[in-house]
Design a protein that fits this description.
Mean pLDDT: 86
Number of helices: 15
Largest sheet: 9 strands, mixed
Strand order of the largest sheet: 3-2-1-4-5-9-8-7-6
């Protein structure tokens, strides 16, 4: 679908499917001849919090005037019930199923891959009373009793987001809702260490049946998980400490085997990082471990002095410097979650009403899905795009888009909004600390030691 067809699909969900979903969830028990109907409520909440994430109920009441609905703030407040929260969750599920296919950004390093998939999760803390619905992982002062996790797969080659999928917060990353078998042939897969598992990497590289044709082969780049045993090609256990380079910027690369059973031949790349970078990593490790009530192991702190990378990409396809650039793409999904949280405020709300909090959360995620579709079509082919600036550009036009959803003219309005991306939505070029986009386009300057972070 084109972006205009995608937006029309979102409009169809809101106009045609919401009434049915409202009856199924019990959010609406009888048909209202006048007043606040389910379509007006859902559409206004999504667009209202998209434009102003901390909007008051009085602001929502004002926006409902677009649909000729006169309602008080207290009447809106009364509509945020458990069935309404379930209605918004069902709408979110439908929004997540809409897919926009678009062209690939033209970067030479990407040409080998059919897709570049980055996967990650983010936790949203909820009131303790919701622990029966969304189980957290525990924590101080009851903060972790109830929480949910958002899982996302992001194809940074086209900008397409798969998900978000919601699970209990206690779901571990490597047991998330996405499966390795669903990765497209010829793709590159990137994820944090929370998703690291030998069996997972073997499945990505070989498939569930144990073998791929050359055209079906899939690739991965990942950091090495401390205490993961590696073997030489002859089957001997590798002493990694004895292979570590000692000079900053020095690289050691060799072929190794991952997994004693069903072994997988891969590349090991080890780079010595500056001491200040290593110390910064150790501080982050200690802070993360402290949040979970534990202390990082001595080996974990020791190996922080090196960047240790595993990949099944051949040397003829990408050298070690290009592998390190590809590894940096893993952080791009962190920027996406940061945009959703800091800009879209998906984890913030004014009310203490749990049903209203869940409704706002789902509504804001629906807005972020539509926002990504607009950015995917409007600026993704520019490798220097700034998703923060693009999101701000979209927010200025939200009112126009809502009017189009209510009164018609979505196609013309969307095309007009896309024109706004032509200027002012690019990253600033940096000479001292090049961005990932600059490294992808221009390559890695190995003299810049700070790039080893």
């Amino acid at each position: 679908m084109s972006v205009t067809q995608t937006m029309e699909e979102f409009q169809s969900i809101l106009e045609n499917e919401v009434p049915t979903l409202a009856r199924e969830t019990g959010a609406v028990k009888r048909k209202r001849k006048e007043g606040l109907d389910s379509v007006t409520l859902v559409m206004t909440v999504i667009f209202g919090f998209w434009q102003i994430p901390d909007l008051r109920l009085s602001g929502l009441a004002q926006m409902m005037g677009r649909r000729a609905v006169k309602v008080s703030a207290s009447a809106i407040c009364q509509r945020f019930t458990a069935p309404t929260a379930e209605l918004f969750r069902r709408v979110l599920q439908r929004f997540a199923q809409v897919r926009l296919q678009s062209d690939k950004v033209e970067i030479a390093l990407f040409q080998t891959f059919r897709a570049v998939i980055v996967e990650d999760s983010s936790t949203i803390h909820l009131p303790a009373c919701l622990a029966g619905m969304w189980q957290g992982c525990g924590g101080n002062a009851g903060r972790g009793e109830a929480a949910l996790k958002i899982f996302v797969r992001w194809n940074v080659l086209t900008g397409q987001v798969l998900g978000p999928e919601l699970t209990n917060a206690r779901t571990s990353d490597h047991r998330g809702p996405f499966h390795e078998e669903d990765l497209v042939p010829g793709c590159l897969y990137l994820a944090d260490l929370g998703f690291f598992a030998i069996k997972r990497l073997q499945t990505i590289a070989r498939g569930s049946k144990g073998s791929f044709t050359k055209a079906e082969k899939r690739f991965f780049v990942t950091r090495w998980q401390p205490r993961t045993i590696l073997y030489t090609r002859s089957g001997h256990r590798l002493d990694l400490k004895g292979l570590l380079p000692q000079q900053v910027g020095q690289v050691r690369e060799l072929g190794v085997v991952l997994g004693k059973h069903d072994p997988l031949a891969i590349r090991l790349i080890v780079v010595k990082v500056p001491e200040d970078v290593a110390n910064e990593r150790r501080e982050r490790m200690k802070e993360t471990a402290q949040k979970h009530g534990r202390q990082p192991g001595e080996d974990v702190l020791f190996f922080a002095g090196w960047s240790i990378v595993l990949t099944n990409i051949a040397r003829t396809t990408a050298d070690f410097s290009q592998i390190l650039v590809l590894l940096r793409l893993r952080w791009q999904i962190e920027r996406l979650f940061r945009l959703w949280k800091e800009d879209g405020k998906i984890d913030e709300w004014r009310s203490k009403n749990p049903s209203r909090q869940l409704s706002e959360f789902s509504a804001k995620l629906c807005a972020m899905i539509m926002q990504q579709a607009l950015m995917q079509e409007g600026c993704w082919l520019d490798p220097y795009r700034s998703i923060v600036k693009a999101a701000a550009c979209i927010r200025h036009e939200i009112n126009r888009l809502m009017i189009a959803f209510c009164e018609g003219g979505v196609h013309k309005t969307v095309l007009s909004i896309l024109c706004c991306f032509r200027s002012g939505c690019q990253l600033d070029r940096r000479a001292a600390h090049p961005s990932t986009a600059q490294l992808l386009v221009n390559g890695l300057d190995w003299e810049l030691e700070l790039l080893l972070t």
